[in-house]
Design brief:
Number of helices: 15
CATH architecture of one domain: 2-Layer Sandwich
Largest sheet: 5 strands, mixed
CATH class of one domain: Alpha Beta
Distance between the termini: 47 Å
Length: 505
């Protein structure tokens, strides 16, 4: 693989070798060449530099997929600053917690494509700037302390936040080496070339979209269509006509199949589509077979996490599988299965060039998962079969993955418990077709007539919409220990009938 020490070197390489090739397509700005993308990033870097942003500073991107987001990631690299991509769909309190922890010198808002970003920008008193042909907004935070900068690829490139189980933000430090490896490896194992057209609807503010779409495309000079939000009809048309690579989460596949059914179609007939993948959520065999029948293509599966720059294992073209294995480990990675039982199942421990530097300003949390030899405890359970394929059997943690987004139960519980009519709340994940439901169990104050609509209104300004429970069970009596603490492990059994029956969101 070609060696680079900064992610902007990849873009400079593509602009030098194919200056007029189309790099990006957006609904707002049309087609942008590699030269145009680089120029937009350089212009944005100049504007940031004039505000005082320099090496080691953090640049927060409150973003949805757009030219501004793509230019912002490169601009931070040009300045030797750290990008801090944050989904614009987060609530104001959530963004404020991340801002207070990361302490960015500047915050860029992708206002051309996102009403949510505009709202955050106005609240921050941001001013208008330009990112190539796109208008954006910028807020400056003076007197920010810069972190130490190194000349090699071990320099931190991006700070991606995964909200901790206590509700406190946890910043994952990923280096330029991590991101470049992630992009090059993702492109290599999927056999992506400069001739490919990647439909990038996965958010660039999350590691799945950042690594498997953005960095993979940049690594080989593929064409990226940046899409701010998923729309089944628009995506269906794009897949029919121009897309060759479609990384997605199961919920997107479900919505595409529902759209086709509404149009009287049984499947998708695509001219160029050759690679579809599923990630960011568990995959069951029946669902995999259903998706494959719809697309007429094998559905490739994978396993990753933010702390490992997304990619850990993946199935490959030419080695399709009839089961739900996530395939073999990616290039140059090592794996151990610790404390395995007789069935071979144990905790997945990994090491390789994809592993994070650590959690920003949290050595305690870092040492809990990352040892001095570079081995990362994933918190996930699985086993290796005789051919070396990895099978995921469960999560040691309580993390819920809803439509590709990470949802931590304790964070949702904390918000629900703030409601004056709630005695206590418990949140668990429950498997749904192509997704995971977020199920909230509520013990209300006796006789107060609490209904889900009250709680939905309560959460509107407290949590991002994708963290809101999708199913509600309100009961005066939840299984509890003598201390009164809800026994979450028993909820699915005690309320099995209610869960089987389902309920409206």
């Amino acid at each position: 693989m070609t060696s680079f020490s900064r992610i902007h070197h990849l873009l400079e390489h593509q602009a030098a070798h194919a200056p007029d090739a189309i790099a990006l397509t957006t609904a707002q700005s049309g087609d942008i060449t590699f030269t145009g993308w680089l120029q937009a990033a350089q212009d944005l870097a100049d504007q940031l530099r004039k505000t005082g942003v320099g090496p080691g500073h953090r640049v927060m991107l409150v973003a949805e997929n757009s030219l501004t987001a793509a230019a912002g990631l490169i601009a931070a690299s040009l300045l030797d600053a750290w990008s801090v991509p944050v989904n614009a769909r987060l609530s104001a309190p959530e963004i404020n917690r991340i801002r207070d922890h990361a302490r960015p010198a500047a915050t860029l808002f992708t206002t051309a494509v996102s009403g949510a970003a505009r709202d955050h920008a106005h609240a921050a008193g941001a001013r208008i700037v330009k990112a190539g042909p796109e208008q954006a907004m910028l807020a400056v935070q003076p007197d920010t302390i810069a972190e130490t900068v190194s000349d090699d690829a071990s320099q931190v490139a991006t700070l991606l936040y995964t909200t901790g189980t206590t509700g406190d933000p946890k910043g994952v430090m990923l280096t330029h080496a991590n991101l470049i490896y992630g992009g090059q490896t993702s492109a290599s194992h999927r056999e992506i070339t400069s001739a490919d057209y990647i439909y990038a609807v996965l958010p660039l503010t999350h590691i799945f979209g950042l690594s498997s779409a953005f960095m993979a495309g940049l690594a080989v000079g593929a064409h990226l269509e940046l899409v701010p939000r998923f729309d089944a009809g628009i995506t269906f048309a794009a897949l029919q006509s121009r897309v060759s690579i479609f990384p997605a989460v199961p919920q997107m596949h479900a919505l595409l199949m529902a759209h086709a059914s509404q149009c009287g179609l049984q499947n998708l007939k695509a001219e160029r589509l050759r690679y579809i993948s599923s990630g960011g959520a568990p995959l069951d065999l029946a669902w995999k077979q259903k998706v494959e029948a719809f697309f007429g293509l094998p559905l490739f599966n994978g396993y990753g996490m933010t702390e490992a720059t997304a990619g850990i294992a993946a199935t490959r073209p030419g080695a399709t599988r009839a089961d739900t294995s996530v395939g073999k480990m990616l290039t140059d990675q090592e794996i151990r299965i610790e404390q395995a039982g007789q069935d071979g199942i144990g905790e997945i421990i990994i090491r390789g060039p994809n592993i994070m530097t650590g959690y920003y300003h949290d050595q305690t949390a870092t040492h809990q998962v990352l040892d001095d030899d570079g081995w990362l405890q994933t918190g996930d359970l699985g086993y290796l079969d005789e051919q070396g394929n990895l099978h995921i059997t469960g999560r040691a943690k309580e993390l819920i993955i809803r439509s590709g987004f990470n949802v931590y139960p304790l964070e949702v519980e904390a918000a629900l418990n703030q409601h004056p009519q709630v005695v206590q709340a418990a949140v668990i994940g429950h498997s749904a077709e192509g997704n995971e439901d977020i199920v909230a169990f509520i013990q209300p104050l006796t006789g107060n007539g609490l209904v889900p609509d009250h709680l939905k209104d309560h959460l509107k300004d407290r949590l991002a919409a994708y963290k809101h429970p999708t199913r509600w069970i309100i009961s005066d009596q939840l299984p509890a220990a003598p201390s009164g603490k809800i026994l979450k492990a028993r909820l699915a059994t005690v309320f099995a009938d209610e869960l089987a029956a389902g309920s409206e969101e």
